[in-house]
Amino acid sequence: MEPIISINALFKSYKNGFMALSDVSLNINKGEIFALLGPNGAGKTTLISIITGISIPTSGEVKVKDFDVTKHPIKTKSIIGLVPQEVSIEPFETVMSSISFSRGLFGKPQNLEYLKSILKQLSLWDKRNTKIIELSGGMKRRVLIAKALSHEPDILFLDEPTAGVDVELRKDMWKIIKSLKKNGVTIILTTHYIDEAEYLADRVAFINEGKILIVEDKQILINKMGKKTLSIKVDKKIINIPEKLHKYKLEISDNGHTLTYNYNINNKTEITNLLNDLSNENIRLKDIYTDQSSLEDIFVKMVN
Ligand SMILES: Nc1ncnc2c1ncn2[C@@H]1O[C@H](COP(=O)(O)OP(=O)(O)O)[C@@H](O)[C@H]1O
Ligand SMILES: [Mg+2]
User: Fold this and answer.
1) Please, what is the angle between helix 218-225 and helix 295-303, to 10°?
2) 3-223: CATH architecture
């Protein structure tokens, strides 16, 4: 995989001495959706601000397509679009003039066909002559994305794209983000919603108190760290677990009527053995179901 952004030993302390980022190193690959996941105050917006040239690092290096963000800020900013966490747009402008203005800020010649294509993709073409103040909250969020894409960036940052939006709007945003990826845009999003990262991301980084805890392919992370539990409802009350079943470290619950077995996702043959051994002990099954730990369980475990 080819990195489009590389971050090396990045530190950021604010004027008051607060260390918001501490030794952050990671690469973002071309074409991926990368989720930066962490609780409020973890340092997500700080990291985005440095990559997008809004804020200056205390030390360390960030390169966007091989250009250093502090040495070549005009170049790197032209490659990046940012949908900021704090929303502010000119209320009395029309949609079209607002995104056309954003494009102009980057010194790009106007390209109506391109602006039309992004407005269509974001279902805003019919609203192109509507004033922003007259749009719904969901449409305003889409205008912000259109503005961020107006200068044809290769990389799009979305800082908390669904913070404080309702469920339906969140699903819309997810659809839009997936469709942008299909166009070849590299997407970095921050979120404190684990389900969002779980649904959208190809790779995930956990950040907490300014430090990156892990960077991993999402599925590999779930497979590697995830545990599954098998719950077995049995036909008669179990008070003591028979000697021959001790090796499975079963837990008794449900007043003796359920046995729970924790196993690693990669070790499924053990289950066959367990079921055989239960049968040999004359324990009959009434019902059986499995449960898998999610990104959330893994994150909570790492942060603690
Ligand atoms: N300008 C600033 N001066 C001092 N501290 C700041 C400033 N901006 C952010 N912080 C602090 O840095 C930490 C990280 O903030 P931020 O990057 O906004 O976190 P996140 O986006 O993950 O919620 C927080 O503790 C925040 O209070
Ligand atoms: Mg933030």
Assistant:
1) 70
2) 3-Layer(aba) Sandwich (3.40)
Ligand 1 test: best mutation among 18, 50, 160, 208, most atoms within 8 Å of CB?
18
Query: How far is it, in rounded angstroms, from Cα 205 to Cα 182?
Result: 22
Domain span(s) for CATH 3.40.50.300 in the chain: 3-223
Low-confidence ranges of the chain (pLDDT < 70): 224-226, 265-268, 293
Output the six-digit token pair for 42. Answer: 């973890």
Ligand 1, atom 25, lies closest to the CA of 41
CB within 8 A of 164, min separation 6: which ones? none
Structurally, at CATH architecture level, domain 226-303 sits in 2-Layer Sandwich (3.30)
Q: Where are the beta strands (DSSP E) in 53-166?
A: 59-64, 67-68, 80-83, 155-159
Most ligand 1 atoms within 8 A of CB, residue of 10, 12, 46, 49 to mutate: 46
Residues of the chain with CATH 3.30.70: 226-303
Question: 3-state DSSP helix/strand/coil percent for the chain, to nearest 5?
Answer: 40, 30, 30
Question: Does this model's pTM top 0.85?
Answer: no
Q: Whose CA is nearest to atom 12 of ligand 1?
A: 20
Residue 63, SS3 per DSSP: strand
Residue-level pLDDT at 80: 97
Please tell me the distance from the alpha carbon of residue 279 to that of residue 139, in angstroms, as a whole number.
59
Q: What are the tens digits of pLDDT across the range 7-23? A: 999 999 999 999 999 99
From the CB of 56, is ligand 1 less than 6 Å away? no
